Amino acid sequence: MGNLFTKKHVEAVAKTQRRHVVPNHLVPDDADSKEHPNHGYLSNCIKTTKYTVLSFIPKNLFEQFHRFANLYFLFIVLLNWVPQVNAFTKEVAMIPVLFVLAVTAIKDGFEDYRRYLSDKKVNHQQCRVYSRKDRCYNRLEWQQISVGDIIHLSCNEIIPADIVLLRTSDQSGLCHVDTSSLDGENNLKQRYVVKRLQQGDEFHPSLFTHTIECELPNLEVYKFHGVMLTPLNERIPITKNNILLRGCVLRNTDFAEGIVVYAGHDTKALLNNRGPRYKRSKVERQINRDVIWCVILLLLMCFFSSLGTAMWNAKLTSNVLIPFLPYESLSQFSALYQGFIRFWTFVILYQVVIPLSLYVTIELVKIGQVYFISQDLQLYHPESNKRVECRALNITEDLGQIEYVFSDKTGTLTENEMVFRCCGIGGVDYKCLPDTDDTKDQTASRSEKIADEDFVQLNVMKKSSRGGNTVQFCPDPALKQIVSSMTFTDLPLNMPDQMYRIWDFFLLLTVCNTVVVSLHGHQDMIDMSGDHCHEFDSSVVQPKTTRGISPAPQGVSDASTQSRKSAISPAQPSVLKSVLKKPKQKLHNIVTRMSHSPVTRRQEPLENETGSSGDEIVDDEHDITDTDTSMLSENTMRTKYEAESTDELALVQAACSYGCRLLNRTPSFATLWLPREGEVTIHILHTLYFDAERKRMSVIVQHPATNDIVLYCKGADTAIIPQLRQIASGDHEARKIIKETQRLVTEYAKQGLRTLVMAKKVVSIREYQKWLAVHQEAESSLDHRESKLHQSACIIENNLELLGVTGMEDRLQEGVGETLSSLQQAGMSVWVLTGDKQETAMNVACSCKLISFDQDMIILNAKTVHMAKEMLESKLEYLNILNGQSPSSQPLDGSGHVTVVPPSDHRHHKYKKNVALIVDGKTLGFVQEEKMCRDNFLRVAQQCNAVLCCRSAPAQKAYVVKLVQDKLHKLTLAIGDGANDVNMIQTADIGVGISSKEGMQAVMASDFVLPRFFYLKRLLLVHGHWSYDRLARMTLYMFFKNTVFVLLLMWFQIYSGFSGAPFTDDLNLIFYNLIYTALPPIVFGILDQDVSDDLLMSRPDLYKEGAMGLVYTKYSYFICVLDAIWQSLVQFFVPYQIYLDSAVSMWEFGLTTLAGCVWCTLLQLCLETKCWNVLHVCGIALSLLVFYSFNLVYSALAVVRSPPANPYWVYLHTFKTARHWLAIILTVVIALVPRIIIRSFQATFQPATRVLTHHRLHMNHFIPDHNVFATWSAMGGRTRDFSHLREEEVVSPEDENKRSVKHDIDTNC
């Protein structure tokens, strides 16, 4: 029986599961809740809190004790309750654990309370929901919405749940949504009413009787599969374009109505909602490694101490009663048994050698570092009002250890603001001129007839550009004159084919897109209370038909109008479909039905008339070209475009500047303005949207001149040219056009322009009929809909006729070249991974100084795996010969990893600067397939200064990053701005997203967010360096101070018979880590600066210290232990010698020893501090003040503390004695002076690189005092004072790089 429920069976059942949604107004009010068809679906009430008042304490403790460190210290506390083992007072031993648990619980509780307030605010927002009882819309809170409710939304209202669009104020069923809160994309998206649902005032929610069948809730924001079932069982497809998602905002639409399909935590917004990302940094992994050494040290100390206990007890005679030994009778006395018992006592006593406080301190330090990074004004971009954002809270130190940087090109290195520069139509190149006054004068002189029109159209475009951007070119005068003569009514006889191509080309630019046109303000007919507004202007909701465009034509145009029937009756097939089913009528019948063309000229000006796009119509008497033409209205000139990509926006703007202007767009129609015709309406039959696999987009329209069914297609050259129709052997003109167009594509790419190829296809009625059936079946499919739609698009997108190509410029962002150069000087290898053509990518890489055409370039464009293997082997051998290495000098190690070229190889470093590697996507595919290709590819890339990967797919980008991580074991950073960069960003150790015009998908997947690329320089070179240096030195300091304290306890055991007794009271032992030395390391880890930010920005080579891991090496912990052994010996035996001949009590001796330890550890931190401020001073002073204040108060109150002895007034007496202060002074001097002397010698004879230069502040000015002071205190003297130097006396970086940095290894503690 068990075989009946196999894994495949379960998966098959899961795939068939669907959600069935019934409108709630169809369900009787008295229906049992359990019998409700929508029963079991989540309500719209959200709850992101983790705790309740009752569950907070048990649940929070349960979560905290999932951490191994907390479990360890809980074990120590429980062990201390065993009478024979306990080392501290039971209550006191619990203080550290309780403190850590309490601090963490308070933090968790505060965060959860903030989530509660946020949930409460969201749940109490109100919207309008249709009521069956009242037969109108009533105001309800969001948390009261349920699946199946019909909701009414107004313009600028937030969408409360995932709803299927049923009705909009637009007669064509169109609405616009702002999805920035969901995916961060600021451009508006178009959403449509489900096909064949009625529009207009006749629609009423009570008449809606359809049910919905859709997929279960999932994370796919850009996918939705569902169908709407009519009472007659007709299946109407529902796609992502029919869905309004929770959190989006309705824009440019008076109102919209829809039915809820997902609510609350089932919505896609909440399913994709996640908090800050948590990763384990490289330093944290090193800390975990050293904690293991701490455990080993603890076991060794406990073993030798318990061995001492056994040896000391073995010397005692069994007939001597020793009161402090915990055995009940002489017969039970055993030295070995006592050693075993004392082993666990020493585990309790030496517990602080495993630093519980270190983890708490690191967490607080990282929060402080993240705060100051986010508050850096030099990482603030005023134009976009954005600043750096830290989404990952615990990997700030990794910013200072990056060795490989992987960057996207478009939108990351460039502005992603496309500017139309040139185009080639029919193989003829048309250049656009720069937008300058001289150019305008020149243009006017060349073509006086259209001079005024040029400036009118140019000014129009400047007003219409999104966000105030201007079109920075002047149209080609000859081409503009041809476009200005475009007409669809009176076609000239014997018109040249080139003119047809030009007209089709600009018609494609205007129509083949998803651009949103916005013109006027919006007002709803229903107010927030659900009542109708009496002063509502219905003309806004139902715009009149513009004169000059005939009513909806019969035939094809009627299909769109007649197809939208009542929601309670089955939809009738379109007229077009019925015509296509009658082959005998063919297209002639359509043309006959459309004898009255849908395109006519406006003959006279109309006053106070509103067009379909909300434009006010003005007089059009002006005739620039001596023909009837229609001028743009004032509102039309204020038209605002919103596009999902900057490419589409640039193309529409370019067409507008040539006179072919898009005025309005709906799912079925596009309204254009032409200089000769005025307003023209084109019927759109289908839109085949762009996808990453096809790399093209198409629209199927009814051509306004010929009434033919025409497919217009645009896309990458690799996606369009293979789909061109086969050229007949005698068609020399077509071959010439293709050849010249390919030449223009290459020429534009070499200029660094992005290219798109345009093509068209006249579709026959028979072919269209056959394809339409396949396409409708794909649209109605619930399973694999994307795949079927892709196949459907590929069926019709073939046998294309080439029209031309466009070239658009994407300018570099400011500071890109300087940033890339600085990153390379910092020792980072920079790889650019782009999907652009090789010529375009190389040109941009040269512009940003990543590569130069005068350097050696290795270009890998392999056609087969065998060719790729041979090319890599030959290039590797060539590089090895130039480097003076044998071809086999870089073998694989035993684990199959590539041997890394050592950074100390100066010959390699010198030659590496002169080689660049360029590889295309096809070759990268071969690298993925063949292991030998992978290894040789990495060997070649290691010897290149820059790597440029062209035509890279998103999966290939992620693969390259993963390859470097796995084979080279390097810390990687990936930076990008678009959805195609998400895989790469998530794969890298650190992902950085650029908040750009391509949206925020990269931002949502990233660890850090930057407004511009050039901020990466400061983020890495300054904050990355500081974060790594601070945290590494603070961690080593924490290991040092804990080890010192534990060793003091062990030395005391020598003189206490290894009894496990401490030298001071329990509270002082606990407060040493908890209070006395807790605050200064936190201040140090957040605020210390080894060098100034200006010096780090001017000397990128200082970053190499972090990348090479010189501050925190694998030997640093052992150096700290050796230093701790020395200082602990001094801190214990100096007071011991001073009090040797005196009758001092244990309390006085213990307090003196503890005071010496506190002074030494705090002064040790002073030597480590390199940039002092008031918080450093206050932290040190406050720690000393708390130490002395507590002991004075404690000694005055502890009357019966630690019987039979107690420290009552002993501490006050100790502070008055000269021996106490003499012991402290001698302890500090003897413990720290050797370190100071060693550092002084190092600073004199082997100074660190970071302090042998300074940056230019002002000509002939000295370095500011704070820089001099900061450099003097580096690690107790690792630097030199250069305040006497002027700018011309600074040591060059090249000379200084020759100096060795090996002294850093033994100065890291």
Automatic annotation (TrEMBL):
GO CC aspect terms: endoplasmic reticulum membrane; plasma membrane
Domain annotation P-type ATPase C-terminal: ranges: 1003-1247
Positions that bind Mg(2+): D408, T410, D977, D981
Localization per Swiss-Prot or TrEMBL: Endomembrane system; Endoplasmic reticulum membrane; Membrane
Matching InterPro entries: ATPase_P-typ_cyto_dom_N (IPR023299), ATPase_P-typ_P_site (IPR018303), ATPase_P-typ_TM_dom_sf (IPR023298), ATPase_P-typ_transduc_dom_A_sf (IPR008250), ATPase_P-type_domA (IPR059000), HAD-like_sf (IPR036412), HAD_sf (IPR023214), P-type_ATPase_IV (IPR006539)
Active site feature: D408 (4-aspartylphosphate intermediate)
Record region (Disordered): 543-575, 596-621, 1287-1309
Gene Ontology terms, MF aspect: ATP binding; ATP hydrolysis activity; ATPase-coupled intramembrane lipid transporter activity; magnesium ion binding
Domain of life: Eukaryota
Residue ranges the record marks as coiled coil: none
Record-listed E.C. numbers: 7.6.2.1
Membrane topology: Multi-pass membrane protein
Main location: membrane
Domain named P-type ATPase N-terminal: residues: 34-91
Entry binding sites for ATP: D408, K409, T410, E648, F690, K714, R754, T834, G835, D836, R951, K957, N980, D981
Catalysed transformations (reactions): ATP + H2O + phospholipidSide 1 = ADP + phosphate + phospholipidSide 2; a beta-D-glucosyl-(1<->1')-N-acylsphing-4-enine(out) + ATP + H2O = a beta-D-glucosyl-(1<->1')-N-acylsphing-4-enine(in) + ADP + phosphate + H(+)
Keywords: ATP-binding, Endoplasmic reticulum, Magnesium, Membrane, Metal-binding, Nucleotide-binding, Translocase, Transmembrane, Transmembrane helix
Domain P-type ATPase A positions: 126-252
UniProt cofactor(s): Mg(2+)
GO biological process per UniProt: phospholipid translocation
Membrane-spanning ranges: 68-86, 92-110, 291-312, 341-362, 1039-1058, 1070-1087, 1107-1126, 1146-1167, 1174-1200, 1220-1238
Polar residues compositional bias, start-end: 557-572
Annotated family: Belongs to the cation transport ATPase (P-type) (TC 3.A.3) family. Type IV subfamily.
Protein name, UniProt field: Phospholipid-transporting ATPase
Originating species: Paralvinella palmiformis
